[in-house]
Amino acid sequence: MSLKQATTALDRHDYPATSDQLADSYDDYELDLPNGTESLGEVFARGASETFADAREAQATMYSAVSSKAIGREGYSDRDPTVLGTDGPGQVSF
Fold it and tell me: Most buried among 14, 41, 49, 71, by the most CB within 10 A?
């Protein structure tokens, strides 16, 4: 499932709900990420135990706790300037 589909699934869940409850409920839901997959349950199990009042809180946690498998090219940005005092990443030619 995509992150958008996971967002919709979280909209349908009953709240308040704890991260442990969400981890158990969605452990079988596989997220399709650019660099692999992971279960939605793993995402909620990764963080500290907390209680979500509504779907928005759970969705914000999901987007912030998803692993680096969701990142296309780590450390790459064509918009951010290189931080002063560093050489920055080397150029990659395709």
Answer: 41
Q: Are 58 and 10 in contact (CB under 8 A)?
A: yes
Extract the tokens encoding 49.
Answer: 């135990």
Question: Could you tell me the residue range of the domain that residue 29 belongs to?
Answer: 3-70
C-alpha 71/C-alpha 42 separation (Å) is 17
Tens of pLDDT along 39-84?
999 999 988 899 999 999 999 999 988 988 887 666 666 666 666 6
Task: For residue 38, give both structure tokens.
Answer: 């992971």
Residue 15 falls inside a structural domain: yes
* DSSP secondary structure, 38-63, as one string: EEHHHHHHHS---EESSHHHHHHHHH
Give how far the C-alpha of residue 67 lies from the chain's centroid of Cα atoms, to the nearest Å.
6
